[in-house]
Input
Amino acid sequence: MDALYIFLVLLSALMCTLIFLTVIVFAIRYRRNRQPHAEPIHGSLVLEVTWSVIPLAIFLAVFVWGGVIYFQERTPPQNATEVYVVAKQWMWKLQHQEGPREINQLHVPTGRNVKLIMTSQDVIHSFYVPAFRLKQDVLPGRYTTLWFRATKPGTYHLFCAEYCGTMHSGMGGDIVVMEPTQYQAWVQTGGSFGSLAANGEAVFQQLGCPTCHRPEAQGRGPSLAGVYGSPVQLEDGRVVTADENYIRESILAPNAKIVSGFKPIMPVFQGLVSEEDLNALVAYIKSLNQPPSGPAVSTLAPGMQPQK
Amino acid sequence: MTVHISSNKLNVTIWITLMCLTVITATVSFIDLGPFNTIVALAIATFKALLVVLFFMHVKYSSEKLTKVVILSSLFWLLLLLVLSLADYSTRGNVRIM
Amino acid sequence: MRDSPAVVAQAPEHHGPELLHHFARAEQQRDSAALGMWLFLATEIMFFGGMFCAYLIYRLWYFNEFAVGSRSLDIYMGTANTVVLICSSLTVAMGVRAAQLGKRRLLVVLLLLTILFGAAFLGVKAIEWHEKYEKHHIPGASFNVSDLMRENPQMPIDQNHEQIYFSLYFAMTGLHALHMVVGIGIFVVLTWYAWRGRYTPEYHTPIELGGLYWHFVDVVWIYLFPLLYLIDRRR
Amino acid sequence: MATAVLTGERENYLNKEYGISSWLLTTDHKRIALLYLMSVTLFFFVGGFFALLIRLELLTPAGDLLLADTYNKVFTMHGMVMVFFFLIPVVPAVLGNFLVPLMIGAKDLAFPRINLLSWYLYVIGGLIFIHCMMTGGVDTGWTFYTPFSTAFTNTKIVEAGLAVFVAGFSSILTGLNFIVTIHRMRAPGLTWSRLPLFIWAHYATALIMILGTPVVAVTILLVAVERVFHLGIFNPALGGDPLLFQHLFWFYSHPAVYIMILPSMGIVSEIIACFSRKRIFGYEFVAMSSIGIAVLGFLVWAHHMFVAGISLYSALVFSALSYLVAVPSAVKVFNWTATLYKGSISYTTPMIYALGFLGLFTMGGLTGLFLACLGIDVHVTDTYFVVAHFHYIMVGGVLMGYLGGVHFWWPKMTGRLYPEGWGRVSAVLVFTGFNLTFFPQFILGYAGMPRRYWQYPPEFQVLNVLSTAGSTVLAVGYVLPMIYFLWSLRYGKIADDNPWGAAGLEWKTSSPPTTFNFDQTPEVTWEAYNYDQIPAPAEVSFAR
Output
C-alpha cells in the first residue's frame, strides 16, 4: 500500500510543480508591461484531448492498482485464526478462539493470519490500526470482517475512526505483536476461560438448542454439523452461503430465512442473547465443521457436504 | 404552455381508460402469475402515468422540447439513485436477492 | 406571501393580461412559468424518489413482511382512492379547458368538484389510518402484528421488520396526503380568483400550473397504489 | 448596511428608495444579493469562530480547553454552519443573484418574488439553527450518521434537521430560478456559445441543486420521523439499515460539494480571462466540463463509504466512477493555465486570489485522487488527510474564488473601489495562512490521526500546533477584507462603469446599475471574451 501511496505522492508532486512552474513562468513572462497586447488564442482540440485522455489513463491505472490491494484486504484467507471483536460505546472487547478475553488490547503472534469478526452493540465504530494501514467500520446488527498478518513485533495504536459519541477519541487501545513462543506463554497465563467454542457449546445447551438441532438432522431443526461455509437451500428457492452473518441472522431473526423442508417455529432470540454469547455460539457452530474433536458427534446431514 | 385545448371527448376517453386500468390492476393482482405480478402491476401503473402526463398535462402536444427533457432527466436521475444503490445491496455478502 | 411555488406567476394588483415588468412578451412569461413548474415537479420526483429507494431496498430484504403488510390493507378503499383521484384529474383537465375557453362558471364548478374529490380522498385515507390505529398497526410503542401472523400462517414475519413496512407505508402515504392538502389549499385560492373572474383565455397560467401540480400528485398515487397495496395478493 | 450617501447624482438601485421595507420587501435581484451577502457573512464568522475553538482545543493532546461533549458540539456546529449556511449558498446566492440577470441582459430573474422567498427561507432556517445552537446544539457531526443520530443521542437533531430542511428549499428555489432565467431570458443574440463561463457554472450548479437537494430533504424527514416515533427505518436494532441512510445522505452531499466549487470555478474563469486580457483557452471544453462535473457528480457518492461496509463490487464500481469525475476538473485547471500563455497579465487582488485558487484547487483535486483510490482510502479515510483534502477544496477553492469574485465585482455592486494595496495584503495573507493551517494536516492524516478527535496521542502535537498557528493567520486574513470593504463604502474612490476593462454585459451598465439594469435590452453580436476588441484600462494604478 505504501508503494502505491509514494507513487501517487510523486505523481501529484510532479503535477503540482509542473502547473505551478508554468503559471509562474507565464505570469512573469507575460506580465502587463512586457506584453501590452494579448494574442487572441482560441484553443486547440489536440491539446484538450491529450490532457483529458492521458490523465484518464493514469487514473485508471491507479484505480486498478488500488482495486487489487483492496481486493486482497477484503478477502480473508481460509485458515486464519479468528478473534471476535465487540465494539461498545467507547471500548473494544476482544475474545480469542483459544479463550482469553481482552479489553482495548489485542495480543497477536507474528506471522499468523488473524481474522477479526467484528460487530457493535450500539452505534457504528471503526477498527483502525494505522500501522497496518487497515480500517473497517464495525456495524451494529451484522458482522464485518478484517484480516491482517503482523510481521514485526511491537505495540501499535488502535483507534476508533467513526464518530461514536462523547469518548470517541478515548476509545483507543494497542495491538501487541509478540513472538509465537511469547504468545503461547501469554495464552497460558491469560486465565482459564476455556476455548470460545466450549463456551459456545455451554450457551448452546443452556438455550435449549439441541432439542431441535440434533446432529442426525431428524430433529425439527436443520442439523448444524458442517453448515458453516456450505450452501443452504432456502424455502423460497434461494441458495445462500452460510457465513457468519447468515448464522447470526438465523439466531436473531430466524424467520428471515427458512431452510427448505423445515417449519418456521424457531423462537426469536433478538435481545435474549448478549453479543459475547452470540459470538461464542457462532464459534461453536463453526467448530462443528472440523472432524469430531469436540464432544459433539457431527455426522453428515443428508445432502449437504461440509466444505473442507 | 401551448395553446392546445384538448376536447372533452378526449378527456373523457382518457378518464375511462384510466378507470378500467385501475380495476384491471386491482383484479390481476389476485391471479398468481409467479414473479410477473410485480412487473405487470408496475407496467400498468407506468402506462396510466404516461396517459396522465401526455394527455392531461398536454405534454404530447407541446412544441416545447425542454419540458420533455426535464421529465426524462429527472426520471433518469431517480434511476441513477435506485440502480447504483442496488449495485451495493445486490452484491452484499449473503445474497439476499435472487 | 403564500410560499407555495405552485402558483408561480403571482397576479399583481391590476386585471388584464398581467405582464410582469421584467418579461419582454407575455408568451415568454407563460413559458417561463411552465418551465419553472416542471422543474419544481422534477424536485418533487426526487423528493418522493428518496422514499421509493428506501421502499425498494426494504422490499427486497423483507419481502414476506411487505407481503403480509400489504395484504392487511383494505384493497377496496385503495381502489376507491385511486378512482377518486382519477376523477379529480378529469375535473382538473376539463377545468383547464374551461379556463382556456373563458367559461368562468364552468371553471368554478369544476374546481369545486376537484376540491370535493380531494377531500373525499383524504376522508378515505383518514378512515384507513383510523382502522390501522385500532388494529395497533401504527409503528411505535403499541405496535403488534400478532393478528397478521395468525392470518398468514404460511408467511413467517418478524415483528421489527413488519414495523419497517408500516413506517414506510405511513411515511409515503402521509407525505402524499400532505401534498394533497397543499393541493386543496391551492385550488381553494384558484376557485376564489376564478370566481372573481380573473382568468381569461389570454391569462390563465395559475390554473394550468395548479392543474400540473394536481396531476403530478395523482401520478404519485398511481404508483403508490400498486406498490403498497398490491404487493402479493395472490391466493 | 445602511445605504451610504452616494455623491453620484445618477439614480441607481441603491439610492432609488430607502428604508427598511424597501430592503425587506424588495424583489430586485441586486438588493436580494446584498441581503444574502450580509446574512452569509454573519454565518461565515459564526462558523469561523467555531473553527478557531477547534484549533485552540487541538493545541494540546489532552482535552483541556473544552469538555468532550462541548468539543463534539463545536465541530458539529462548525460543519453544519459552514456547509449548509455558508458554502452552499454563498456564491450562487450573492454573486449569482447579482450577476446572472446582468450577464444575460435581463431586467431581473424569472421569478423575483420566489427569489425573495428563497432569502426568507434561508433566514428562517438560519434563525431556527441559531436557536438550536443556543439551546443545546447537536453532537453528531454534520453528517449525522444513524443509528447514533436517531437512537443514541438526545441533542436537538430534529430542530437542526428542520433548519437544514428549510434552508435546503432556499437552495432549490434559487436553482430553479437560475435555470428558468438562463433558458428563457437571455438577451437577443446571446447564444449558448456566447454565454460567460460564470453563467455556465451557475447553470450546472442549479442542475445539482434541483436534482440533489430533495433527496437530503427526504432523508432528514425520515430521520426526524424515526426519532419522534421511535421507528426502525435506519436503526439496525429494529431491522433498519444504517448504510441506507449513508447512501441517501451521500447521494446529495457529494454533488453538494460540486454545488460549492462550480460557481467559484465560474468566477475564476471570469477573473483569469479579464486580467490576462485574453479569451479563456478552450472555451467550449471549460463550459462542457462544468456540465460534466454536474452530471458525473451524481454517480460517485459511495466513495465516502468504502470502509463503511458496502459490498466489494460496488466499491470497485464507485472508485472507477470517481476517477471519471476527476477528469473535467483536471481539464479546467489545464485550460486556466493555458489561458495565461501569451496573455497580458496584471496582478490585481482578484488575479492573486484566482491564481491562489488555481494552486490550492490543484492540490485539493490531486489529493482527491488518493481518496478515490481504494487501496489508499482504507488507510486515510476518516483521518485528517480527508479533513485537509476537503478544506483545500472548500477553503482554498470556494473561499478564494468567492473573495476574488467579491473584489472583482465590488465596484459594480457598490460603485466604490476598495483599497488595492490592502487587497493584495489580504490575498497573500489568506494564501500563506491557509497553507500553514492545512498542509500539516495531510501529514497528520497519513500518520493516522483520526478526525473528530477531542484528545490525541502526543506524537501528533507538533503538527497540530503548526496548524493552529496557521489558523490564526488565516483568521486575520479573513477579517481584513471585511474591514476595508466597509471602509471603501464611505471613503473608497468612485468607480466608473468598467474599472477593469472587462468583457461581459454586466460591465455595460452603470455601476452600481439602475434597478432595471438595462434601459433597453442589449443586442449581443460579439463572442464571449472579446478582449482583443476592448482597450485595457488606461490608468495603471491597478496593474503594477
Q: What stands out?
A: Helices of chain B lie at 8-28, 36-56, 65-89. The radius of gyration of chain B is 18 Å.
